[in-house]
Design brief:
The complex is a heterodimer of chains A (421) and B (60). Chain A contains 14 helices and 15 strands. In chain A, the strands form 5 sheets. Chain A has a 4-stranded antiparallel sheet. The two termini of chain A are 19 Å apart. Helix content of chain B is 38%, strand content 17%. A two-stranded parallel sheet of chain B has the order 1-2. The chains are: A alpha+beta (421), B alpha+beta (60). The interface between A and B is medium-sized, with 24 and 14 residues.
């Protein structure tokens, strides 16, 4: 006999271990994302209104409005966003995830993934590269021009490429990458290389001009974060079915909107538990300091929720040059995550820990009991709209999210009469 | 081994709790490690109460 929570968590971990995230194609957000509409923009993290959005989210929305042709200047865009003509909903409510601001507009091209073990899908935009980009809240003319190139050249070439190539098993690709020094959140150098190696022949077989094919290959190769927008939906597709496992205490979402951090727990369904997002401890680009930093933002910590990203930093010692700390710290971060997780991944094995599986299945009970919070490595956006990325670092969620979730869980059990007297 | 015998040889100390004991020993050249330990739920009474309740969940 096991208790109903242990039974539910066993099911949740089976779902996570058996998930098969697979890249099946590309499409346009407005046509393929469930519930997407012309007057709807998606954003990272838990629900938020325009008034409460932080700088990077506002900047991303403004860039999105100019990209969609609904505004021609930043001022017009801000006015439009505040007018009530546009609705805002979390990516996570539409089977999607978005890095940093996570803005998804109807015209944007997206990767389409399917968890072939459970039949659910996940969507994510294509990564724009580093620097002045929409996801970091930048909205200058160069940002919009680059998004237009992505729509008119990158997207059609990659769409035809995947049609020619056929589905790509991303679980195996991520498993290989974590044995090559990636942790699949802020270091995606190996996975991006593996992806290019896999699809390059199919890119050459497409019907586009050599000029277009070369520009696509050059862009993919120039951007080590290309694969981030695949590792994120891979994690989302793997974890999403956990949201339907009644009485599971396993976390299946962690996400931030730049103002609040939110978590969702299997047995508590779609309910968010939120608290103010933390300021990130990190390394800043020349000319920027902690004073410039926006609080934690983005859906990218879905990778940590799966047990990769910061949870697997031991396998990616080189990442400390980007997010701070030492390789010894990276090992310490990973080993401490076994304190709050339920199993070790059967797929994602970490060579520096004698091929131990990554820490998998965050249990809210363990977080509260040990007071050890999940570790997240992340980019840092400027707090003002229009600037962009200013650094990268390490952050943890607020404990209050887990405390609220535990209280709600106990209340649920009490209401259902499932606690012994 | 008696306690007195223990103090006749080199001490290697594992310290649990207040870090100042670890720091004092270290400053005297004693081999020592500090265990990264916190009381359950950080000693927060409301959280301890919730953990106690959730541990009484019924069998399936």
């Amino acid at each position: 006999m096991i208790d109903i929570i242990e039974k539910a968590n066993k099911e949740a971990l089976e779902i996570i271990q058996n998930g098969q995230p697979t890249l099946i194609g590309l499409g346009v957000a407005g046509e393929v994302i469930p519930g997407m509409a012309k007057d709807l923009f998606l954003h990272a993290g838990p629900p938020i209104t325009w008034e409460k959005m932080s700088g990077p989210l506002k900047g991303g929305v403004m860039a999105g409005l100019m990209y969609e042709g609904l505004a021609s200047t930043p001022e017009e865009a801000a006015e439009y966003a505040a007018s009530g003509k546009l609705r805002f909903e979390p990516c996570h409510h539409h089977d999607a995830v978005g890095p940093m601001a996570g803005i998804v507009t109807p015209r944007m091209p997206v990767w389409i993934l399917e968890n072939t073990a459970y039949g659910n899908r996940a969507y994510c935009t294509l990564n724009e590269g580093l620097g002045k980009v929409l996801r970091m809240g930048a909205y200058g003319p160069e940002v919009i021009k680059h998004l237009q190139w992505m729509e008119s050249v990158l997207y059609p070439v990659l769409k035809e490429t995947i049609e020619i190539h056929g589905p790509i098993d991303l679980k195996t690709m991520i498993a290989q990458a974590v044995q090559m020094g990636d942790e699949a959140h802020n270091r995606n150098k190996a996975a991006t290389s593996l992806l290019i190696r896999e699809i390059a022949p199919s890119i050459l077989k497409t019907s586009f001009s050599n000029e277009d094919k070369i520009s696509v290959l050059e862009f993919l190769n120039s951007n080590d974060h290309t694969f981030l927008n695949l590792s994120m939906p891979a994690a989302k597709a793997t974890l999403e079915p956990v949201g339907k496992v009644k009485y599971s205490t396993i976390v299946y979402t962690m996400a931030r909107n730049g103002t609040e951090f939110g978590i969702r727990v299997g047995g508590l369904g779609n309910r968010w538990f939120t608290a103010p997002a933390e300021i990130i401890d990190g390394l800043f680009f020349p000319g920027f300091t902690k004073e410039d930093a926006n609080p934690d933002v983005g859906d990218s910590c879905i990778t940590e929720t799966l047990g990769i990203g910061g949870f697997s930093m031991a396998t990616a010692p080189a990442i400390v040059q980007f997010v701070g700390g030492t390789p010894k710290d990276a090992v310490r971060y990973t080993t401490s995550m076994y304190e709050i997780t339920t199993e070790e991944s059967k797929a994602y094995k970490l060579p520096p820990l004698n091929f131990r599986g990554s820490p998998t299945g965050i249990d809210i009970r363990k977080v509260i009991e040990t007071q050890v919070l999940p570790i997240i490595n992340t980019g840092i956006a400027h707090k003002d709209p229009g600037v962009g990325q200013v650094g990268a670092g390490i952050v943890r969620p607020p404990m209050a999210c887990f405390e609220q979730a535990l209280e709600a869980f106990v209340n649920l059990l009490e209401d259902k009469g499932l606690l012994e007297d | 081994m008696s306690v007195n015998d223990l103090f006749k040889q080199e001490l290697k100390v594992v310290n649990l709790g207040l870090k100042s004991f670890y720091s004092d020993l270290k400053s005297q050249g004693v081999t020592t490690v500090q265990v990264n330990w916190k009381p359950k739920a950080g000693g927060k009474k409301n959280m301890l109460s919730l953990l106690s309740k959730i541990n009484k969940v019924k069998q399936s």
